Structure formats: structure tokens, C-alpha cells
């Protein structure tokens, strides 16, 4: 730093004395010291310097004021945010309460809807069930080896794919309604038929006791003369149903046997039901005199079934 001192003499007296620090036109030192003893003289350098310092001080002041204003604004903004947050916090319980109320209302509506649907469905099912006939298709099947000692020949085995005819016929004679009476009738039938050691010609026999007795079963063809053996399943109904109506057990068991045959794939899906009347000379004479038709009451019931096709004679 350089210093310059000068004195101007006017009448031998010292008018004023000044001392300046080194000033740079492009840089203002923050440690520059200025000492003014007499300010009568206008010094352009000092004026510029003072103006610069004034501008600098004003700028600093403005910056400080701006910072203070920014801080105040931030505080006010923070206060506003806190107020907003406080407002939101204060409204959360009320909103949560409204949501819970809405959820309960929705649950109540859903419960009422499900209850109404359940009651309607239950009522509908009860009405439908009341209109349906009380028919169950459980088959009580007694195997051949249990009730009969006669061996079935292995000839003429059935081909299940070809069995399209379910043939129903009555055996004639006494009716039975208990397993004991039905077994007695079966053994009597075997004695009268088994002169040559053959089993009865039926595939199955059904009694009024609701049981199905296996004779030749599904495995072997029927042995009835005059009846097709390659495409038929012969079912004998124990008793005489010319004047007596077959009971519900017997009719239901016929249905059960057919359903079980389908389930085991022993008959064709497109089967048909036929009635068979065995007209002997004695029966023909009785029919002419009394005008009775063999198995009239039986076939009157069978004809009502949708699978019924026709009745033929042997």
C-alpha cells in the first residue's frame, strides 16, 4: 500500500491535510481506511469511493432485509402448513368415522341381499322338490351265487354295446312282497324250469320286496325262446299283474336297475323299453273267456315312461 501526503500553502498556513489509502479503480479493499480532516474540497475519488461504499452497504442491507423477509415468509409458510396440518389432523377422526359408517352400511346391504337370495333359493328348491316324484335309484342287488346253486353256462356272452332293448315281462303265478316269499317262488320256478340243468332264462328278476335277483346277469344273454338275445336285457317281474297294480317298490327297482346298468356301461345309452306278453294256449283260452289281457295293469304303468317303445308277444 502506498501513501501520499501533500500540503498546499496559502499565506503560509496549512489549509488542510488528507491521507488516502491505495485505491484501485477495479477493486475496493475492505480494509481501506479513509481519514478526512477537512471536507471542503470535493475529491472525485473519495466521492466515488463513498458512493461505492454506500451502494455496497445498501446492497448488503437489502440482502439482509431480503433474507429476513424470506425467513419471515418461510416462517409464515411454515405456520400456514402447520395450520393446514392441524386442520387435516383435526378432520381425520371425522373422516374415519364417516368411512366406518359407510362400510357398516355397505355390509348391512350386502347381508340383507344375501339373506334375501338364500331365502328365495331355498323356497325355489322346496317348490321344485315338492313337484318331483319321490324316487331314489339305490339298487339292492342279490348276486346269483347267494340265492342259486345252478351254474350259468359261459356260452352266449353279452356284448354291452349292442344292448339297446330292455324287455319287461311278468312271470305269472303268485306275487311276493318279502325276501323269504320271493326266494321260495324263485326256487319253485327253478324246479319247474330246470329239467335239463339250465338256469332260468331271465337276466334279472325283481320282486315286490324291492330287491333285484341276479339270474344270468349282465354277462350272459337271456335264454328266452322267441326273444332276441344279442341286443336285449330281459327282466322278469315276479307275480301276475293282470288285475293287480305293481307296487311302488317294484316299479322303482326297475328304474334303479336300468340306471345301474347305464352307470356300469352294460347297456347302450340310447336304449328303449319293451313289454313282452307270453301267451300260452291255456292263457289264450282264459283271455278269450274273461277278456283279460296278460299284464294289463303292469304295462299300463310302463307305457307312461318316456323310454317305452312297444309291446310284442311270444
UniProtKB/TrEMBL annotation:
Residues 139-280 form the Peptidoglycan recognition protein family domain. CDD domains: PGRP. InterPro entries: Amidase/PGRP_sf, Amidase_domain, PGRP, PGRP_domain_met/bac. Keywords: Immunity, Innate immunity, Membrane, Transmembrane, Transmembrane helix. Signal peptide: none annotated. One of its GO terms (molecular function) is N-acetylmuramoyl-L-alanine amidase activity. The keyword Protein biosynthesis does not apply. It comes from the Eukaryota. The chain crosses the membrane at residues 106-127. Gene3D superfamilies: Peptidoglycan recognition protein-like. GO terms for biological process: innate immune response; peptidoglycan catabolic process. Pfam families: Amidase_2 (PF01510). Belongs to the N-acetylmuramoyl-L-alanine amidase 2 family. This is Peptidoglycan recognition protein family domain-containing protein. It comes from Glossina brevipalpis.
